[in-house]
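Design request, tokens follow.
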């Protein structure tokens, strides 16, 4: 097994940089560069020297984690050095000249940890999410899964399946054909029913968790010149969308990603919905209509609340916003705002945040954070339901239960997931 090294902290000038190494030569490298391996898991203040010529490279901290108690499960070392470009380059260069050492590939530390059982696939995915998390809700959800919440749940379910399978297999082994009719079918169903209910309940929560990763989607709709772009700018507190007094300025969609009370919310400014004057604008309107189908909330904007919402296909919730409140008063049933004076914006924020929270939760109960998880549990559930429904053919019942266990195994990376592994780990940054 190679020993790999990498900068674990961010690229570019910084106060401190962390270089990590993993593999059998990690301890030897520490001896070569710092004169000693040091006590397990204890930081030492050291002078780092190039083993080729004894020249000092930097002063820093060195740590050694002997296998298996390390982030990768292998011998593992860290050098905490000064984060200047020349310092980092000099140390990385000196490391790359040591025989048997090579730079780590993106995600290679996590992949080694996976290979050694330190984390499963669901935890690795969640670590990637944790690094990408931009809001409190996303952080809380990713940390929960990285901590093994999904791993433990899947292990429990698989154990229940193995239990039920043992019952069926015992019957298959010890009874002859004629006896199969005496099989305790009720006993089997009593075991499987709570499992089905638990999987169904968890599946019902899945859309909220997936949305937490992607963001709650709000689209701004309304007639041309209603003030959509101006509102987006006010929401984003910077000039993102093009604001102009000419109707039809916003031809494509412009997104603002906001953190609303810890929840990720994406606002999209759209081309005004109207009978399009030209081809380009018509394409814009079509694209908006397609995107509307995936939105969680629509804000219908109309100056002074003069135009009622257009018919929106799909039944997505619509909030009626009367714009230009400095010029008009809002009719009943409309939330009045003025992007110019800022009036009503806090109320609008609160209304959107309340709906986002109802849809996303707070991330504290998340289980299936990816479509992949949901699909695997849905197919496990189908297999268990098929097993429950069979009148006879215990062989098939057993096969259903095995197939349910295999489906769950895909979540944690226990079965046929080489392509998923590649996809997950290669998306990690270098040094993870
Ligand atoms: N300096 C530094 N900070 C870091 C990391 C790191 O690798 N280095 N991490 C990088 O992700 C995260 C912490 N993750 C870690 C995961 C496992 C172990 C570890 O030593 N695990 C052993 C012992 C566990 C224990 O003592 O309870 C083990 O699992 O056997 C350490 C850090 C965040 N902060
Ligand atoms: N008085 C006043 N004028 C506003 C307000 N909000 C927007 N406007 C003006 O209304 C005009 C249209 O604003 P936009 O934000 O470009 O409208 P839009 O709905 O994005 O228009 P399209 O891109 O054509 O669909 C601009 O001249 C804005 O300055 C407001 O709260 N009060």
């Amino acid at each position: 097994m190679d020993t790999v090294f990498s900068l674990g902290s961010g690229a570019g000038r910084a106060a401190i940089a962390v270089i990590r190494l993993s593999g059998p030569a990690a301890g030897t490298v520490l001896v070569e560069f710092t004169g000693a391996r040091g006590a397990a898991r204890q930081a030492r203040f050291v002078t780092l020297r190039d083993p080729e010529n004894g020249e000092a490279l930097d002063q820093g901290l060195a740590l050694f984690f002997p296998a298996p108690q390390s982030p990768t499960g292998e011998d593992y070392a860290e050098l905490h050095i000064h984060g200047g470009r020349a310092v980092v380059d000099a140390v990385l260069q000196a490391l790359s000249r040591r025989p048997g050492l090579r730079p780590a590939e993106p995600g290679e530390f996590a992949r080694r940890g996976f290979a050694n059982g330190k984390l499963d696939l669901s935890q690795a995915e969640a670590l990637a999410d944790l690094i990408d998390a931009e809001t409190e809700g996303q952080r809380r959800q990713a940390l929960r899964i990285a901590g093994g919440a999904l791993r433990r749940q899947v292990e429990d379910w698989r154990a229940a399946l193995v239990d039920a399978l043992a019952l069926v297999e015992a019957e298959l082994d010890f009874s002859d054909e004629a006896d199969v009719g005496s099989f305790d079918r009720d006993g089997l169903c009593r075991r499987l029913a709570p499992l089905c209910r638990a999987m169904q309940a968890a599946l019902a929560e899945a859309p909220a968790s997936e949305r937490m990763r992607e963001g709650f989607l709000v689209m701004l709709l309304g007639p041309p010149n209603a003030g959509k772009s101006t509102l987006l700018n006010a929401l984003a507190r910077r000039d993102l969308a093009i604001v102009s007094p000419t109707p039809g300025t916003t031809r494509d969609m412009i997104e603002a990603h906001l953190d609303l009370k810890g929840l990720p919310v994406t606002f999209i400014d759209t081309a005004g919905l109207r009978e399009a004057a030209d081809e380009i604008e018509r394409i814009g309107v079509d694209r908006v209509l397609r995107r509307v189908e995936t939105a969680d909330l629509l804000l219908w904007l109309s100056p002074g609340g003069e135009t009622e919402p257009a018919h929106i296909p799909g039944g997505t919730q619509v909030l009626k916003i009367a714009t230009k409140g400095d010029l008009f008063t809002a009719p009943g049933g409309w939330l009045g705002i003025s992007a110019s004076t800022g009036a009503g914006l806090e109320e609008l924020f609160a209304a959107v945040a309340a709906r986002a929270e109802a849809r996303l939760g707070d991330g504290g109960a998340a289980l299936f954070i990816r479509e992949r998880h949901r699909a695997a549990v849905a197919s496990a559930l189908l297999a268990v339901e098929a097993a429950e429904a069979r009148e006879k053919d215990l062989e098939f019942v057993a096969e259903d239960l095995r197939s349910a266990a295999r489906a769950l195994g895909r979540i944690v990376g226990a079965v046929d997931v080489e392509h998923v592994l590649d996809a997950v780990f290669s998306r990690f940054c270098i040094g993870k």
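Comment from the thread starter after seeing the answer: thanks! The chain has three domains: 3-104, 145-212+370-425, 215-360.
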